[in-house]
Amino acid sequence: MTSLFDQLEQVSLRTKGSSDLSSLGVMDVLLDEEPAIFTKSKKDFTPLDKVTHVVIANKFMVLAMANNVLFRMNLHSPSERNEISLNKYTQGKLTNLFLDPTGNHLFLTFASKSKSTEMPELMYLSRKSDKIKTSGKFRTNEFTAIGWNNMNESDSTTGPILLGTSKGLIFETEISLEGDKFFAPSLEQYWRQVFDIGKNTNTPVTTLEYFQVPGTNKYMIFAATPSRLYYFYGSAEMEEKPVLQQVFQKYLNVSETDIFLASESRLGYSRLQFWSENLIMPNQFAWVTEKGIYFGQIDDLKDNRIATVKDKVSLLPYPKPLYEDYSQSPKYPIAIALTEFHILLAYTDSIKGMCLLSKEVVYEDQYNEAFGKLVSVIRDSRTGDIWALSENAMFRFKVHREERNIWQIFCVNNQFDLAKKYSRGNEVCYNQVLLKEADMLFEQKEYILSAQRFAEAQSSFEEICLKFLKVDEPDSLKIFLRNKLSALDPKQKTQITMLVVWVVELYLTKLEEIRLQGLEKSASYDEVQKQFETFIALQEVADCIRSNKSTIYELMESHGDKGNLIKLTIVSKDFERLIRHHIFKNNFRDALEVLKSQNNFELYYQFAPVLMQEVPKPLVNTLIDQGKKLGPLRLLPALVSCNGELHYLEVIRYLEFCIVKLKNADKAIHNLLVSFYAKYDSKKLMEYLNSQGQEVSLINYDVYFTLRLCAEQQQNEACVKLYGLLNLWESAVDLALKVNLELAKTMADMSPENDLELKKKLWLKIAEHVVSEKNDIQEAMKYLSDLIKIEDILPFFSDFLTIDHFKDAICNSLREYNQKIQALKEEMEEATNSAEQVRNEIHSFRNCFTYISSADKCEVCNMILMVRPFYFFPCNHMFHSDCLLAELEPCLGMTKKNRLSDLEKQLESLNTQSNSDNNSTGLSGMTRRDQVKAEIDNIIASECLYCGENMIRNVDKPFIEDFEYESITREWQ
């Protein structure tokens, strides 16, 4: 249950918090009651005797009782506990316990009961063992402080540690175990004195702590005495033992004032404790002396001298009790527990909690006689748990959001970064910090920073704008508006539009002022212009401008800012307006550049006709660069509207690009190119027609359109080509004879080879042309061939020509006729002889016979031949009729298979009919049955299965069919 002091403190804090919020201008907000920062709970633990000493680390507790018994318990698992009697190890009086941060290593210090009989002792106890170890090297020194290795996690070795004595000596040593035995006969691996603070005086070392800077070989060492706090910083190599002696080495010849913080004290002790956020390096410390609490911050990267540490140390007075009794002498804490923002001070009969920042008491609790005197308050450095032990009881403290009101303190002290850090979870508090910081910056005339803070805060928009307008700070107002704009939700269209228009107005006004001063080319103008361009390029700004183009354009025109008007159209992607503007100003190249800079290809089709008239070559270059992104068909209006040599050359260049590079096959594109070729370039026209080939179905242009166009332009050679494509060979040769005799010959050669009449007619036209036009008899004679004879061309010659001109040709013709007649006679005689020989062979074959033995076998089934109907071939191969049919059937064509099947059905039907039907004969004198059987024999036995042509045709046929391959493969496996 919370004590009366706790309840009174809660009321005081709530009242104080309310007044602080009011002083900061914070709206009073009624919050749910929160628990006190510190609350305690009594644990169900009662020691067997009065507790005299206690240490806790990593949820492991060791305490010593007045009956000289050492008690150990795992706080995480209270059933794990044991007791060790100290009487069987020493008769000395226990003076202190030292437990490392892991809870694995414990040192016990003993003082002699009689100085003449015994010396001080230091003993070691491992968590894994119940046996206390001692060493002779530890004797003669009364140890008062131990600096543990905070990086050590081993339960068998302590790592390098520091030991401080009552005379100010500092030793370095290391304890190492192997199972339950030590490596060496003594406890320590090595033992070395590394520094002397006392200088032969009885100045005890009350606290020792050292830390290794992460990622480096640098160490920070703190040593406290009752009146001094020493600070050592230096490098050391872990491979060299002793390790920490290397750090102390450089301080051996340094003036003492350079290594400690002094505080006059008549107390025989002081308390030093550190708080760490990451459990590795300390962030702050508290050193409790007679004068008060020295509270300081630590930066492991910067604090390499005691001077830098002193600059960040403040002295806090001890808290006064709620009910102060001035008759009593001042009391000093016997133990402390440090948190991030508070410190718990333990006295023999009470515990007080004080805020380190506000220096106010936030907690006070008294301990009555039932619990006995307070022994210690301990903060577990590993877990952060805080424990308090009295002689007869054990308590645990919980810390509830100790940072809850810290922001107010930082805010009052103008430490706004820290105030914002600790108020970030509370929007109201965080907003008040921002407003106070903004007001302070405004008063200090830091208007730019003030505007940034006002923009982050939630406050009256109009009021802040008026503040900056009154002091004539448009630049600061502009920053405020821009930051406010970035914080708006995209759905807040109206607010965004208002802010965008206002900011644009401010930028335009600023730019206009600089231009009026004649500083348009100055660095300040460029800077403002750059800021403006960055602003209008923002996504939300660009969207707003596109939605309110007319308003923004009118605003820019009112300021006469044509340059930014153009840039704005680019940002808002209003390219059509910009291109029209350039065309209206006759800036056609600029219009083309804008066209190139955007991705709306509809604008190419829209403005290409105008630009083709004015800048044909650059436009065609641009169209070519776009490649397949543009549709050539949609550009036809721009291409057909051209006139003049420069224009048609560029149009031809683009059309050639479409056909050659883009492989365009649209007839309209090809027809347009042909039309330009026909008008302006007959050479390229012929090259194009030849490239398209002679197959009408494969050409890409319209032949009839091209023929008509070429005829109009008197492109006769092209017309000849086209006539040939249309198979109008006579028209092609007729026109070719007007152009070129060789062209006519070429066309005659190209005519169909199988149409001899046509070819003869074409060549006769050529011969007639040669005779009639050139009257060249010798030339005409060259056309005589297998098709054209002398008698064919004689009608073309004049009646007045003498026979002498044709003598040789006529003789050659007669000679050829005679040779052909002789050849025909020889062929006829040879044919007659062959027919007579065949007739003789047929006659002799009718009388041919052979002998068949009863042992002869079928070539297919290897069975006796004569047991079933069979066939015998002149090559002496013999087959059963059914075997031959089975082997031959797969090789027959579909027609023969069907016919054979039909004949077999007919034969089967005839076999079942009467003998009278079978005896009937036809015109051939054969019965119907014999005729069917003869036709079957003709199909099956027309040739030997092995020696006939069928075997030759199937020589490349595989032995195994494809559909049988897998099954046969499996059988073979």
TrEMBL record:
GO molecular function annotations of the record: protein-macromolecule adaptor activity; zinc ion binding
Each CHCR repeat, start to end: 623-779
GO CC, any one term: HOPS complex
Coiled coil region boundaries: 807-841, 893-920
Its membrane topology: Peripheral membrane protein
Residue intervals of the Pep3/Vps18 beta-propeller domain: 37-399
Keywords: Coiled coil, Membrane, Metal-binding, Zinc, Zinc-finger
Every Pep3/Vps18 RING C-terminal domain range: 855-953
Gene Ontology biological process: endosome organization; endosome to lysosome transport; intracellular protein transport; lysosome organization; organelle fusion; vesicle docking involved in exocytosis
Keyword Transferase: no
InterPro entries the record matches: CHCR (IPR055358), Clathrin_H-chain/VPS_repeat (IPR000547), Pep3/Vps18_beta-prop (IPR007810), Pep3/Vps18_RING_C (IPR058919)
Entry's localization field: Late endosome membrane
Lineage: superkingdom: Eukaryota
Alphabetical list of Pfam families matching this protein: Clathrin, Pep3_Vps18, VPS18_RING_C
Entry similarity comment: Belongs to the VPS18 family.
Protein name as annotated: Vacuolar protein sorting-associated protein 18 homolog
Organism in which the protein naturally occurs: Dendroctonus ponderosae
Upper classification of the organism: Eukaryota, Metazoa, Ecdysozoa, Arthropoda, Hexapoda
